[in-house]
Structure formats: C-alpha cells, structure tokens
Design a protein that fits this description.
alpha+beta
C-alpha cells in the first residue's frame, strides 16, 4: 500500500468528498485507511468502568484506499504517488500532479474535433 501514517490526503469519493485530513491508521489487510475528521459515524457505548455514563460517540470509520488521494504539501493540490526503483537497493517515491477534470475534458474534446475533421474531408472527395 502506498499510504503511510501521517500522510495528508483528500477524499475523492463518498459523503466527505473534497475534505482533507491526515491518516491516523493504515489497515493493510483490508486496504483501508482511517483519516482524522473524515467518515465520522455514531457509535452507541454502554456504561462501563471507564465511561460511567455511556452514550453516543462520533468516531472515524475506515475509508477504502481508492477513495483517498495524496495532497502535495508544497502546492496544496491533489497528486498521485509512484514508487520508482532507481537501483535494486533503493526506491524513490515520486509525486505526480493531477490535472483538473475540466482541463482534461477540454483537451479530450479538442483531440476528438481534430480527428473528426479529416474524415469529413475524405467523404467530400469521394
């Protein structure tokens, strides 16, 4: 898993989409992370020796690792993290900045328009 305790992440899916926080715990077997302040759920607690009153408490529930994304602390933008092997002994982590979805869609539309234009010209020649 590419996430570690203390990494700053943003939720990209779910009820807390767009909110940020730090990872407090990583659950490797289930491929989930617990992020401070995200995915809060209510838990009913019975009275016991530690908690005399009991009651309803908000706790952070695990989020699947695919639903969170790194935040680059220098630029404060979302980024992907890759592990690049320089040599057999060392591994280097590289953060790749992610383009905004709107910019990516505009570029895709421009490419489609360029591809469609030559096809129309060929049809007219026949």
């Amino acid at each position: 898993m590419k996430f570690k305790t203390g990494d700053k992440v943003v939720a990209i899916a779910g009820k807390d989409k767009g909110n940020t926080g730090r990872i407090s715990k990583v659950l490797k077997k289930s491929n989930k992370v617990i992020v401070e302040g995200l995915n809060l759920v209510k838990k009913h607690i019975k009275p016991n020796a530690n908690n005399q009153t009991g009651g309803i408490v908000s706790i952070e529930a695990p989020i699947h690792a695919s639903n969170v994304m790194f935040i680059d602390e220098k630029t404060n933008k979302r980024s992907r993290k890759r592990v690049v092997a320089d040599t057999k002994e060392t591994k280097k982590t590289v953060k790749k900045e992610v383009k905004k979805e709107k910019e990516a869609k505009e570029v895709k539309k421009e490419k489609e328009v360029k591809k469609a234009a030559p096809k129309k010209a060929k049809a007219k020649e026949d």
